[in-house]
Amino acid sequence: MTEAILLVGGKGTRLRPLTVHTPKPMVPAAGVPFLTHQLARARAAGVEHIVLATSYLAEVFEPRFGDGSALGLHIEYVTETEPLGTGGAIRNVASHLRSGPDEPVLIFNGDILTGLDIRALVDTHRTSGADVSLHLTRVEDPRAYGLVPTDATGRVTAFLEKPQTPEEILTDQINAGAYVFRRSVIDTIPEGRPVSVERETFPDLLSHGAHLQGMVDSTYWLDLGTPQAFVRGSADLVLGRAPSPAVPGRRGESLVLPTASVAPDAKLTGGTVVGENARVGEGARISGSAILAGAVVEPGAVITDSLVGAGARVGARAALSGAVIGDGARIGADNELRDGVRVWCGAELPPGAVRFSSDQ
Q1: Is the peptide bond before 17 cis (omega within 30 degrees of 0)?
Q2: Which of 96, 117, 151, 338 has an alpha carbon 20 to 30 Å from 79's alpha carbon atom?
Q3: H-run or E-run covering 133
């Protein structure tokens, strides 16, 4: 196993305002761009050559990762001029692959945090003789996902759209966003047009008798598609619940990057990360949150399960719970924001503008 494709071209619309200035895979999680964790895990599994399929804000990737040598990788970049979907993006980078027709190529979605045993997925692919192998995971409530039932040998039998009734829930197995393709199969994907690998490529392969193998791996798995999930994923990396060799420090209740400043009596818990050149003032209490580079948390602020964007400022005694503050925003003193509130990049909220009474 020597090469992989990472699909990092999505606009990350559900993650806004985090993705207004930053593509989704480059938003910091546990102190480094999320993509760093994926690259490091791939390298640890033996991958040497990676092609990044980019599109939205494509220009930010190469300045950060270069040729990949700092991570022990060789990285190439291929940019879509128009969005091509997951299948179209895979086909678009095919000419940059080095594998022979029957060799395996790993493919990862750029927004999944997982403890997947990558070597085991490749081993399953090889021993089963599959054309495509899929990482499947089990979820308690599969109604928001497409279902992937398998037979007793793990062979995929169908791809089912999101179930609408209990009778339609035939399995709790879902597509977890990591695949191994036989190299020659990639060349069968139509070229130059949008293609969904989930809705078109996989069902078409199955209908034509191809062997699609599922491997259920129910270790840590999280789709980072929403701000709340992204914050949780960052905290889980800091706490050690989600594995990554790229966390820049020891696992624990908090991670403070070397250039950050935290007052001695501030309390950081729950996997909180304080990014480069960020400052946390006296008496602040921060739990399960991400304070990005250059942000300022003023004295007495209380922040829970929230993300404070790069260069943003949270005023004294402000209270955030489940909130997302965009880059450069200003939250005045004594505001209270909670329950999924998002403040746009550069916005300013005057002191005491938003408060909740104790009986609400």
Answers
A1: yes
A2: 117
A3: strand 132-138
**pLDDT of the chain, 360 residues: tens digit per residue:** 579 999 998 887 888 898 888 888 999 999 999 999 999 999 999 999 999 999 888 889 999 999 999 999 999 999 988 889 999 999 999 999 999 999 999 999 988 999 999 999 999 999 999 999 999 999 888 777 878 999 999 999 988 877 677 767 778 899 899 999 999 999 999 998 999 998 899 999 999 999 999 999 888 999 898 899 999 999 999 999 999 999 998 899 999 999 999 999 999 999 999 999 999 999 999 999 999 999 999 999 999 999 999 999 999 999 999 999 999 999 999 999 998 899 999 999 999 888 764 433
Cα 122 to Cα 101: distance, rounded to the nearest angstrom: 16
Residue 41's alpha-carbon distances to 199, 239, 247, in angstroms, are 28, 17, 11
Question: How far is the CA of 215 from the CAs of 1, 123, 168, in angstroms?
Answer: 17, 10, 22
Q: Which of 11, 24, 162, 267 is catalytic?
A: 162
Label residues 219-234 b or e (16+ Cβ within 10 Å = b): ebbbbbbebbbbbbbb
Residues in a beta bridge with 196: none
Contact 109, 86 (CB under 8 A): yes
pTM score, whole prediction? 0.90
Sequence-distant (6+) residues with CB within 8 A of 352 are: 332, 333, 334, 335
- 267 as an active site residue: the answer is no
* CA proximity to 134, closest of 195, 217, 52: 217
DSSP string over 14-56: GGTTTTSSS-GGGSEETTEEHHHHHHHHHHHTT--EEEEEE-T
